[in-house]
Amino acid sequence: MKNIFILFFVIAIHIAVHAQKENYLYYMKTWNFLKYYHPDIAGGKKDADSLFLETIGKVNEKSDENAIITLLSQNLNHKFSGTPIIDAPKDVLSANQNFRWYQKNKKVTSENKILLNDIYSHRFIAEADQKEKISDFKTNEFKKDENLPLANRLLALAKLQGTIDYLYPHKYLMEKNAEAHFSDLVDQTIRCTSRKDFEIILAKVVSTMEDTHSFRFYDQLNYKNEIFHRSYYPPFDYVILNDHLLVTQLLLPDICSKANIHVGDRIMEVNGKSILQIIKEKKSLLSVSNPETLLYLMSDYQRNLIWPDDQPRKDLKINSKDNKTYNVNTEFVNFADKQQRDLVTEYIQRKNLLKQQYKIVHKDIAYFKINDVFGLTENIPDDQLDAHMDAVFKEASSKKAIVFDMRGYPDWGGFVFHYVYKYFSPVENHFGKYYKPNVKNIGTYIPISYEDFGTYYSDIKNKNVHPYKGKVFMIVNPETLSMSEWNTMNLQNVFPQSKTIGQRTAGADGDIRTIKLPGGYNLEFTGNGIFYYDGFQTQKVGVRINEFIEYSDDDIIQKRDLELERILKNL
């Protein structure tokens, strides 16, 4: 009898906790709806975060949908003047907007459905350039090692949910189980007892967005070194491929020699865990638009994101160049050791410098590196810049081929947007469709207006056009991100004969938006929808590529430049 009583007690607690979680979820949905649509909150008369913190503590396992709607709306205006808002643009992205949570919910009374529909029909219309009001609530008032109170943890998740539902144009591309996963994370948020555990939850929520613009969120985590096991660095550099780490450079040859590690070795497991499994675990904590970008970014030695634990020594399962498999145990670099730290630091600096200095030098090729074009303006007076750039492109036009290396972020926005367009392009060059948030109906997105065209498309009337008949190549890879992707689309249209070669790009184009979260975190994410003019999607997919170039292990070890080889072959 005693055991039966205990079982019923445990079941009762489980039911109560589940009910509490479901009610928190409904509360978040309702709060976000009011935050973005009710004139009192969206218009700034009532602070949304304050309303949350004042009322979330009143939600319990007995609260139902109607009680939650009343709790949040009771002190807001229910009577609206003016006619209902009518917004019916011809071209609109509306796949994200979903009100079934109250409109199709049989538990919600007809009175409350009418109330919420009335709020939506008389929703607040923001100014085009109005940004989200920053709450008086201090987002960074907590110590870095202090776990946030439950109300503030739930507020952070609610703000993330609202961002995804109302501000993130690509919610419809997220995994179908994303909402169920969010529900599990709310449950974990209720029970988490440390700041580190809460930061893991935040990282997992952000990762579901699958947006490379949000990748850097991990770097804001106070416990990032512990969460990603970055305490020790390997004595070798590597590239991460689908199921293995390829050793590409020995940083500390003595350590590697003792462990029988060589350049060209393939590491298949770390401390008994396969590389495939480790990548899967890391993917759940990092936001990236596609798998290729995840592997590329995680291959950065300096980030040091691939390791599954903080052990100073690791067991590695290696498949050697001659296809022999064996296990080794090796020490990792301890940054407390100054000599080891200096060697690694010097290596990182040298590697970065070589990357910066890369260029193609060939008598038949004009080469432009997108993150190193501002140097073309050095020592050129402003009033002579137009003539100087005309001369640069005239010289480029005398070559058999022009190469635009887009593997980086543009250091000069005017290079492609203004000067390449001005010299080479026809007057009309509408190469893509740029969707912005619809201020008349937040959560939907519409094409930029004619007044905005000058911000995103160049338009110089009566200009001279210098068509280039030679070959044009754009080189891309996962470092082709955001403006670099937009510029690549631009160049593809300016030069119809061009070929884009390389690897899949970052798949995150458009302006970056930022929201503030309790705890002092800032989340950046893609705020616009970008498509080719024929409707081809770029988010997650990346830019169109004529020839994908895949490097084999041997290509990487031999430091081959396959993109340059392809270009020279096609001259």
Present the secondary structure layout.
Elements: H1 2-37, H2 39-42, H3 48-55, H4 65-73, H5 100-103, H6 110-121, H7 150-167, H8 178-191, H9 195-207, H10 224-227, E1 236-240, E2 245-250, H11 253-258, E3 266-270, E4 273-274, H12 275-283, H13 291-298, E5 313-319, E6 325-331, H14 338-357, E7 365-369, H15 385-396, E8 401-405, H16 414-424, E9 432-437, E10 445-447, H17 453-456, E11 471-476, H18 483-494, E12 499-502, E13 512-517, E14 521-526, E15 529-532, E16 547-548, H19 553-557, H20 562-569
Parallel strand pairs: 7-8, 8-11, 11-12, 12-16
Antiparallel strand pairs: 1-2, 2-3, 3-4, 3-5, 5-6, 9-10, 9-15, 13-14
Helix pairs in contact: 1-4, 1-7, 1-8, 7-8, 7-9, 8-9, 16-18
What does this entry show, briefly?
With 571 residues, this protein is of the alpha/beta class. 38% of the residues lie in helices and 14% in strands. It is flat, with a radius of gyration of 27 Å.
Task: Describe, in plain words, how this protein is organized in 3D.
Helix 1 crosses helix 4 and helix 7 runs antiparallel to helix 8. By secondary structure, the chain is of the alpha/beta class. The strands form 4 sheets. Strands 1, 2, 3, 4, 5 and 6 form a 6-stranded antiparallel beta sheet that branches. A 5-stranded parallel beta sheet has the order 7-8-11-12-16, with helices on one face. Helices cover 38% and strands 14% of the residues.
